Amino acid sequence: MILLASSSEEKLSQWEQAVSSCAPVFCSTNMDSVKQELVRIKPKILLLEYELPQLNGPDGISGLMKLNPEVRIIILTSLISDEIEWNLFKTGIRGCCRSDIETEQLKTIVESVQRGELWLRRALSWHLLNELVAITREKNKMKQAISDLLANLTRREYEIAALVGNGDSNKQIARRLDITESTVKAHLSEVFRKLEIADRLKLALMVKGSIPHHVSSGVAH
């Protein structure tokens, strides 16, 4: 189902004409109706006029997504800046275009979003690239920081940390390394101290992506 939301009956009529062949269409002319229909009919696509009264920008859009986390939102607007549009994509919208777009083009956008694609203007591509670069750098920094902490462990502590990351219990670790459970616990206490963490769940999360799989699964008995 597709939900169209605009305060303009004329726009709703144009949009409905454009997308009626894609899925059953419902229309809303105010925010209260939009919220009700998101819950009642659970549309897969929401074509939302950005200038709809009481929408309240990105915060309002985030609120709509909470009502129906599965909905894919396409924003239609008269004109917004690249920065605002990019912030809207960061809230989770799937597409953005002018509200006076040609009907065939709007249909193409809806079909693309139905397939799980984003409809992103070429002018915003550099925002996406910068975001990906920043995320990659941050992940690399985190991995390096974790690697530096793990480098402080002794060989035995490292082996035990790897097995914790693999999901092994203290008893299983003791059996695999041919040591006592009390020895495992003693080593883990030292690991927690060195890594400045308090429990094995955090340890597992730390080592999961930092210790190669062959190390965690191939520790000698």
UniProtKB/TrEMBL annotation:
Question: What are the alphabetically sorted keywords of the record?
Answer: DNA-binding
Q: Write down the InterPro entries for this protein, in alphabetical order.
A: CheY-like_superfamily, PH_domain, Sig_transdc_resp-reg_C-effctor, Sig_transdc_resp-reg_receiver, Tscrpt_reg_LuxR_C, WalR-like
The record's listing under SMART domains reads: HTH_LUXR
Q: Which residue ranges does the record assign to the PH domain?
A: 1-24
Describe the location of the HTH luxR-type domain by residue ranges: 146-211
Give the domain of life. Answer: Bacteria
Q: Nuclease among the record's keywords?
A: no
Q: Name one Pfam family in it.
A: GerE
Q: Which residues form the Response regulatory domain?
A: 1-114
Q: Which residues cross the membrane?
A: none
Q: Which PANTHER family match?
A: NITRATE_NITRITE RESPONSE REGULATOR PROTEIN NARL, TWO-COMPONENT RESPONSE REGULATOR
State the name under which the record lists this protein. Answer: Two-component system, NarL family, response regulator
Classification of source organism = Bacteria, Pseudomonadati, Pseudomonadota, Betaproteobacteria, Nitrosomonadales
